[in-house]
Give the backbone structure.
Amino acid sequence: MARDFDIIVAGAGPVGLALVGSLAGAGLRIALVDPQPAAALADPADDGREIALTDRSVGREDAIGAWAGIPADAVAPLRHMRVLNGPSHYAMHFGAGEGTDGRLGRFAPNHWLRRALHDAVAARADVSLLPGRSVTSIRVEGRAARAVLSDGKALSAGLVVAADTRRSLLRTQQRIPAALHDYRQSMLVCPVEHTLPHGETATAWFEYGRTLVTLPLNGGPLDGGRSSAVMTLDRADADALLALDDRAFGVEVSRRYRNRLGAMRSAGARHAVPVVTAYAQRFVAHRFALLGDAAVGMHPTTAHGFNFGLLGQHALASALRAALDRGADVADPAALRRYESAHRRETRLFFAGAEAVMRLYAVGDSLPARLLRDAALRLGNLPPLRHALAARMHDPDLGI
Ligand SMILES: Cc1cc2nc3c(=O)[nH]c(=O)nc-3n(C[C@H](O)[C@H](O)[C@H](O)COP(=O)(O)OP(=O)(O)OC[C@H]3O[C@@H](n4cnc5c(N)ncnc54)[C@H](O)[C@@H]3O)c2cc1C
């Protein structure tokens, strides 16, 4: 029986889009399904997220033809990182010198990344973009997977790839267990202007039970600067901050950041998302693959979710292309296994380490927790660990 498509990708988020971009010219007919309306996919709303990208990730965006679609003045350099532990003066620093070319990474707004990726794939003749509907179930029947859509239509394909968020419906539906952790916190993001310069330094203050981050952006007052304030807070606290007017928010946020960047004022809309992490026990099944946050949903404070998503889609696209070159089926089990083991190798330890640290900092203010946090920070400053962390930030796929 002829299949409608070679691949159905469920989820036109940045990682699903990137996979479709990486498969350009492979001779595959691809359907890309997403519940968002066409206009929201083509012109995504600003969600306040500034995505830290490694140079390797920028290279991947470029190869897909998406990097050129992001305005140069929307991209800000990251040269230094500082991690502070509560009120302690002990800090962990990563300088640009620890990367390979004087820069640790770059920040680009999430909505620009999504728009540019969409533009790179939407007009392609081999891609059918199916907005306004979701994939509700999948059943494998012989040489095809049959995907049922929310509008009642059914489509067949050789392979279904689910990039359908960290709370992936299709992962559950395929009975793939995942370690899901709900931190019962929200991450609140807001652009702010401040009276002291940021020095192209991202700073994370691990306070007790909350984390306060500033990400350096372009623009702002001449003698000060503009940053993205990123706060991980109890949900009720985040809701209270969302409800303040701009003036009161500026006063409150300056106080919470202890005026480290001087007086702050709100410079745009506030957004909050619940903090949930996920790691799937398997990334593949018969004619099925998990990708992006659906496979590995990192804690957002690590700034690695999308970087790992790009890494995963590259591994999957490469494995599929190699299988097609050998004349194998698009869902060749050996190719899917190759993707799974490469992506697991690259993400598993980092995910586990990040979870241990984030859970340590998410809890309150007890003395044992303080001592453990202090020890963890000092351990992280040992030369071999510092080097490993800086290298990871610079490029998460060293060694592939
Ligand atoms: C505040 C914040 C800051 C972050 N900062 C960074 C950073 O600095 N660096 C970094 O690397 N990462 C960062 N991340 C993580 C990054 O944003 C995510 O890893 C990335 O968005 C994952 O992309 P995705 O395409 O896998 O999933 P998503 O972006 O979640 O997209 C999933 C898509 O699937 C669609 N969908 C859902 N269900 C279905 C279905 N059944 N059928 C079809 N489609 C479906 C949805 O509509 C959506 O479009 C941050 C995250 C947050 C919350």
